[in-house]
Amino acid sequence: MDIALTFAVSDELLRKCQEITMMKTYINSAGEGDIEIVANRYFITPRTKMIQCIYGSLENLDLRGISESVKVCKNAGAFADSVSEHVFAMLLPLIRKISYYNSRTHRKIFKKETVETLQGKTIGILGYGGVGSRIASIAKDFGMNIVAYTRSPKDDPNVSQYYQSVSKLLPECDILLISLPPTKRTYNIIKSDQLSLFSGNIIINISAPDVIKKEDLLWYLKRFPEKYYLTDVWWGEPLINESIPENCVLTPHMAGDAPGEFEKAVLLACHSVRNYVDGITENIVDPREYTD
């Protein structure tokens, strides 16, 4: 079997890919390999046996019409380091009131007030995959309690409890992190009914905008100005068609952007391909979950 990368990489990265896969690995923008490692597009040919995406989620691919004989795999854990760092970069300034104090000291007001701490707080993680588990590890170092919702609970010492439903998790956490894959099942999984159960004050979304019903969230933020929504994704991006609430912190879908992260993701995808060839099936998704 051979492997086609449908996007350009450096000669050095291609060499590293070949070392991992131990198969003929080359760049071909039209696919044409037995296995395709893809970013934003793929090509089905009579030879195609596997499509391996370099991203941890597949919402950027049109997966309609793929035969069941073709295995489609996500890249669990890709960009997890950068995304996790971004989560805490958004969270810590809010918890420690960094902007508030900076504004005051620039106005020559040098006065301490009480701030919060992450230690002892419970973070609820919706979607405990590669990114969710990496964030849990960091949260544990901050002395946080971790609870999680996932369809496939695994033995993880960082998690104090798994919940089988979103509605049961929400009342138990101070901070809610959304890292669910954007599928038909998770579309608008959080609506007004679920938001009313949330006992905390901070929601962080590094997944996709449509896991939350837009109208319900905007109403919620207006109704409760003391609560915050920190997000790296927005409905209709890159266009922003509505006013961003004051209690919303929005970054332009950049959580995974950091030097070296793309190369790490490509190499991780190569390891997944090698495992597939060796009979170790992991990260396989059902394309029907991503299509209408």
- What's the rounded overall pLDDT mean? 93
Number of DSSP strand runs: 13
Shape: elongated
| CATH architecture designation of the largest domain | 3-Layer(aba) Sandwich
**What is the CATH class designation of the largest domain?**
Alpha Beta
Helices and strands, in N-to-C order?
Answer: EHEEEEHHEHEEHEHEHEEHE
Q: In percent, how helical is the residue content?
A: 25-40%
Give the low-pLDDT segments: none
Tally the helices.
8
Q: SS-based structural class?
A: alpha/beta
Q: Largest beta sheet, briefly?
A: 7 strands, parallel
| Rg from Cα | 21 Å
Please give the order of strands in the largest beta sheet: 8-7-6-9-10-11-12
- In total, the number of domains comes to 2
Condensed summary:
This protein has 292 residues and is of the alpha/beta class. The protein has helices at 11-21, 80-95, 98-106, 130-141, 166-169, 192-195, 214-223, 261-277, and strands at 2-5, 24-27, 35-38, 50-53, 71-73, 122-126, 145-149, 161-163, 175-178, 202-205, 228-231, 248-250, 284-285. A seven-stranded parallel beta sheet has the order 8-7-6-9-10-11-12.
Write up what this structure looks like.
It is a single chain. The protein starts with a strand and ends in a 7-residue tail after the last strand. It is elongated, with a radius of gyration of 21 Å. The protein contains eight helices and 13 strands. The protein is an alpha/beta fold and 292 residues long. The protein has helices at 11-21, 80-95, 98-106, 130-141, 166-169, 192-195, 214-223, 261-277, and strands spanning 2-5, 24-27, 35-38, 50-53, 71-73, 122-126, 145-149, 161-163, 175-178, 202-205, 228-231, 248-250, 284-285. α1 links the parallel β1 (2-5) and β2. The model has no long low-confidence stretch (mean pLDDT 93).
